[in-house]
């Protein structure tokens, strides 16, 4: 076991593209760190550099305090789990798991013991003599995990290990991975594009975009205090609502109406030297059916026609479309592109709210909705910076 | 749901799965629904043109030469034509020339295929890994395969001709094509030069089947480059290697043009194809010549059988599970 330190690690390809721009990251011994971001953000390249499968163009990588930039993968004592599982098709489950130990010239009894133990932990004992082709997806995934843990390496690297499983199995395996990591206490770097996986698994989450770190922090910090529009929009499902907002004399004009500027917001706006045009961000759970709120006076209440109600049992997702058009910012376009198909721009903004199950809001009718003004985030549309975070000390590390 | 033309009886039979399984095979066949039978008939009809062409161009010549091989039939003495059963086979199989040629053929086959496999694999790896000028490397590697064998054989013959050939002058002062050992070596060399690219091409297709992740995983697991090659690449490529070996072995066993041009079979360098040709075309002995052709056909069939049944060579593209 060991800590992993990335010191200004950069990766450029011969064709001139730079996939990773000098990232700094310290992963403590035994920590479970998730690299998350849309495809092409450099997360897999970063992982491959830690593994030694890609050369590091510049910067330094230290594992357990030792510089390993020039060491071959096999000399780094790291195990990796691949998205495709990469099981050797000609070998049985037992041989697959024993392969790294055999290469390390371990004694046969020792190999048998370790493989037996790992198989027991992963419930693979009865499948040890089968070939990968005869296993289900979940079993193959477990064999890949088994091959990694038998070696007791310094660290585990996992490259989207659950993406090839169906949704239900993925949730199940997620808890298993988490439990296994806690049990073994091995430093783990886990790459995923799925923000739910990132939020539920990691001690710390690293959000990446375009080869840069966006924010590093524990899942709750990322959720509550995103440093910029991109992180705010990427983390959370359904994602944060973004609306255009204009700063007026004593109010903030947004599609739902005029929000009074309280002292806190006014101070933040002055401190940040904010432009007049802003992007207002608010999460779906910070809305409520006004009829169910006791102190409606503390927030902001507005009336809007309901588009659609999705009842989830525990709560209701209620969709509105409000006058005034969607918010415009470069970061938001990136997010929309990642979510698949940029939204067709029109003159109305969509609003997703999460209301209590008791709410009697019905589709096609007008509804009175309460919004928690304390929870709004204001972003600078040109830089994407979260202005509402200015006053307090910055959450996590914000990179350029 | 069921096809309208299906009789109620068959429908009931098909529905009770358990009952149907116990039925003897013949009953089950008889119970085929009308729709299935029509489908089968259509299948045969669609195959028929191809099957007819196959019969015309392969089955007929094979059967005809088998028919000829059972007769004493020498065009120089047409009046002595006579049905002799397997006497021709006894004649050929007890003849020293045949067995010498057989030995020569085996030698050429084994040595050339073995060398081609090693060289072809090396070439395939180079072509697979090359990043710069990939197209140029591949094209230039394939040039020998693109040259007509007879033309290439002539250029080899000139090269080895004493006093005028550049290779003959370089390496020896004798006439290498007139001595058995050196002549055979030159024939094998010409074979290897000519068909290694083909081998490389087949193996490269196999290399493309090895997932990149598998090699990455192996290097993470601590395998050296050689271990990755022998323990991961070769086993995954095995089907492609066997197909390449099968093709090349069958091809090499029928070696003819290089020998014909280089030595014309002098100094006991004839292959079985050579002596079959000599008997059939030059000697005009249709009986003996056909017997030799049939024997070659049998040898080739045995080689194919060994590869398919013993080594489990599957046709390219068919999965292991697909083989029954």
List the helices and strands and how they pair.
The complex is a heterodimer of chains A (400) and B (324).
Chain A: E1 4-12, E2 18-27, E3 32-36, H1 43-51, E4 58-63, E5 66-67, E6 78-81, H2 93-103, H3 108-121, H4 137-149, E7 155-159, H5 167-184, E8 187-192, H6 195-201, E9 204-209, E10 212-217, H7 219-224, H8 229-234, E11 241-247, E12 251-254, E13 257-260, H9 263-272, E14 277-282, E15 287-289, E16 300-311, E17 315-323, H10 330-338, E18 348-356, E19 366-371, E20 377-379, E21 397-398
Parallel strand pairs in A: 3-8, 3-9, 6-7, 7-8
Antiparallel strand pairs in A: 1-2, 1-4, 4-5, 9-10, 10-21, 11-12, 11-14, 12-13, 14-20, 15-19, 16-17, 16-19, 17-18
Helix pairs in contact in A: 2-3, 2-4
Chain B: H1 8-15, H2 17-22, H3 25-30, H4 34-69, E1 71-72, E2 82-83, H5 87-93, H6 96-129, H7 134-146, H8 149-160, H9 166-171, H10 180-207, H11 212-220, H12 225-253, H13 257-262, H14 272-282, H15 286-310
Antiparallel strand pairs in B: 1-2
Helix pairs in contact in B: 4-15, 5-15, 6-10, 6-12, 7-10, 10-12, 11-12, 12-15, 14-15
